[in-house]
């Protein structure tokens, strides 16, 4: 997979990758299930295996032969969604552009350009609304059948079990939504208000959110990929000598392929080579601020792989996404104080202020979005109205207006509805989203701890990663120095911290 994504034009690598993913992997999975069943039937466990056995047992308990063909149908509908949405293009001044290619235009200082890019982009979904709604109708029915076959009242209950969410319930997620509404929504509204003043706008429209409020061109943290590698190496060494040494090994062993080039697959990932005990990071860096944050994020996953490698079995190494993203999101925050050029990082003072502001604002906006998507999915599968396409669109609007305030969507109802059809998780990975919110709350606590004692915060962070998948989530979080909690008071405390940090950076920003 690594060889292929680094060089998709090589037919030999392509064939090997195809053979692995379509021939070897499904059979390995099948054998894995049989091995797991044998272990369960032995009734054997020991310290450090409990979590693994619990996951195996859960998978076996919810397995139904009758669901196998239904999953194949779900898979096929997912492929249809990807086919419809993957190749979307628009015509810009007679030139064909993909939706990612519209992104820079959405950041233009020219409001008219932004609006045109926004409308063109979302229109591709608005015009396909009926087809996508029909596709979702089928997914909805299949998923509810899968749940019923396995003896669950609805697909939400099934999904919680299938995802091995042993440590929180749908009711906890409702508390998370309430906490977002109480603390994050007003904070983001204040961000929009400040943006409106900065940009001297009468009102903030959806196409105003991507632009720099001061009209500056994008940050250029580096020009050569080697500068990205060396700068990050210095940063990790400042966060901790151990992490620096691990990153240094990745450099020496050729475990980084970061630059973009023709023939490379798009996107980024961190994958672990379990036999060698080494993580590999893949990216398509072009020299923008996002590349720096992406590398810090993926390196967090890599440090997780290093620490968890001490666990003898591969099943003991990778915990749920809540803990995996705790590793990566914490690293983005732990590395932040070392991003300035004076310390070997990438930014001068004003640039650093801007990069920090963008990151912290993005954290709040993401929490708000996570709440919308999660509340909406919960409604779809439990309200009894999820099969009704028009009711779904209305429900999305309700959740959106509950969590997102301060943006003027008047005259843009169809466009606002169009947003959920673009959220591929709802189609392809149902309920796969709240994990990011939970992980972010943990990461913000790790960061909060680091502000008073950075050495101890990193020690706790590494101790949590070393637990791999051997302990329940609340214990992993506690080891990291974080509470695994959906309480409004915790959310309030963390949002306040982010806002006070934003005020601090705002003083450094030019007027
Ligand atoms: Zn990640």
Key features of this structure:
two-stranded antiparallel ribbon; mainly alpha; three-stranded mixed β-sheet; binds zinc ion; 66% helix
Question: Would you summarize the structure shown here?
Answer:
The chain is mainly α and 511 residues long.
Note down, in words, how this protein is organized:
The protein has helices at residues 2-6, 11-42, 50-62, 67-86, 99-106, 111-126, 129-149, 155-162, 170-198, 225-239, 241-252, 289-308, 321-335, 349-382, 389-403, 413-422, 424-428, 434-452, 454-466, 473-479, 488-508, and strands at residues 89-92, 95-98, 256-259, 269-273, 278-285. The chain has 511 residues and is mostly helical. The strands form two sheets. The protein has a three-stranded mixed sheet. It has a two-stranded antiparallel ribbon with strand order 1-2. Helix 7 crosses helix 8, helix 14 (349-382) runs antiparallel to helix 21 and helix 15 packs across helix 16. The structure holds zinc ion (ZN). Zinc ion binds at residues 297, 301, 325, 328.
Give the helices and strands, then pairings.
Elements: H1 2-6, H2 11-42, H3 50-62, H4 67-86, E1 89-92, E2 95-98, H5 99-106, H6 111-126, H7 129-149, H8 155-162, H9 170-198, H10 225-239, H11 241-252, E3 256-259, E4 269-273, E5 278-285, H12 289-308, H13 321-335, H14 349-382, H15 389-403, H16 413-422, H17 424-428, H18 434-452, H19 454-466, H20 473-479, H21 488-508
Parallel strand pairs: 3-5
Antiparallel strand pairs: 1-2, 4-5
Bound molecules: zinc ion (ZN).
Zinc ion binds next to helix 12 and helix 13.
């Amino acid at each position: 997979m690594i060889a292929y994504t680094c060089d998709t034009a090589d037919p030999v690598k392509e064939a090997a990758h195809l053979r692995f993913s379509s021939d070897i992997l499904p059979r390995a999975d099948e054998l894995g299930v049989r091995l797991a069943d044998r272990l369960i039937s032995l009734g054997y466990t020991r310290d450090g295996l409990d979590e693994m056995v619990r996951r195996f047992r859960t998978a076996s308990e919810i397995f139904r032969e009758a669901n196998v063909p239904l999953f194949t149908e779900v898979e096929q509908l997912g492929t249809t969604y990807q086919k419809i949405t993957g190749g979307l293009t628009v015509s810009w001044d007679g030139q064909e552009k993909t939706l990612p290619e519209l992104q820079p235009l959405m950041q233009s200082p020219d409001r008219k350009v932004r609006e045109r890019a926004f409308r063109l982009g979302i229109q591709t979904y608005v015009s396909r609304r009926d087809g996508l709604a029909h596709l979702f109708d089928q997914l909805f029915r299949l998923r509810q059948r899968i749940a019923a076959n396995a003896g669950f009242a609805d697909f939400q209950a099934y999904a919680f079990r299938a995802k091995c969410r042993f440590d929180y319930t749908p009711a906890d997620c409702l508390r998370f939504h309430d906490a977002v509404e109480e603390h994050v929504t007003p904070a983001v509204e204040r961000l929009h208000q400040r943006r409106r003043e900065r940009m001297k706008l009468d009102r903030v429209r959806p196409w105003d959110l991507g632009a720099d409020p001061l009209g500056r061109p994008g940050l250029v943290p580096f020009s050569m990929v080697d500068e990205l590698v060396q700068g990050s190496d210095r940063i990790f060494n400042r966060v901790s000598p151990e992490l620096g040494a691990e990153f240094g090994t990745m450099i020496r062993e050729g475990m980084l392929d970061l630059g973009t080039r023709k023939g490379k697959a798009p996107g980024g990932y961190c994958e672990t080579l379990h036999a060698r005990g080494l993580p590999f990071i893949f990216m398509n860096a072009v020299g923008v601020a996002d590349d720096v944050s992406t590398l810090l994020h993926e390196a967090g996953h890599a440090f997780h792989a290093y620490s968890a490698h001490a666990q003898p079995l591969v099943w003991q190494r990778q915990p749920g996404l809540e803990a995996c993203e705790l590793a990566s999101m914490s690293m983005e925050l732990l590395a932040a104080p070392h991003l300035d050029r004076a310390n070997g990082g990438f930014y001068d003072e004003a640039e650093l202020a801007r990069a920090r502001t963008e990151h912290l604002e993005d954290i709040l906006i993401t929490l708000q979005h996570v709440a919308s998507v999660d509340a909406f999915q919960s409604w779809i599968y439990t309200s009894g109205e999820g099969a009704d396409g028009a009711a779904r669109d209305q429900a999305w609007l309700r959740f959106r207006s509950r969590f997102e305030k301060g943006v003027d969507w008047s005259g843009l109802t169809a466009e606002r509805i169009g947003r959920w059809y673009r959220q591929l998780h709802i189609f392809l990975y149902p309920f796969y989203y709240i994990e990011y919110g939970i992980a972010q709350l943990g990461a913000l606590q790790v960061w909060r701890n680091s502000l008073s004692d950075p050495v101890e915060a990193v020690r706790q962070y590494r101790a949590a990663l070393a637990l791999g998948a051997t302990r329940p989530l609340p214990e992993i979080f506690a080891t990291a120095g974080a509470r695994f909690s959906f309480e409004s008071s915790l959310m309030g405390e963390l949002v306040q911290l982010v806002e006070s940090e934003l005020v601090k950076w705002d003083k450094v920003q030019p007027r």
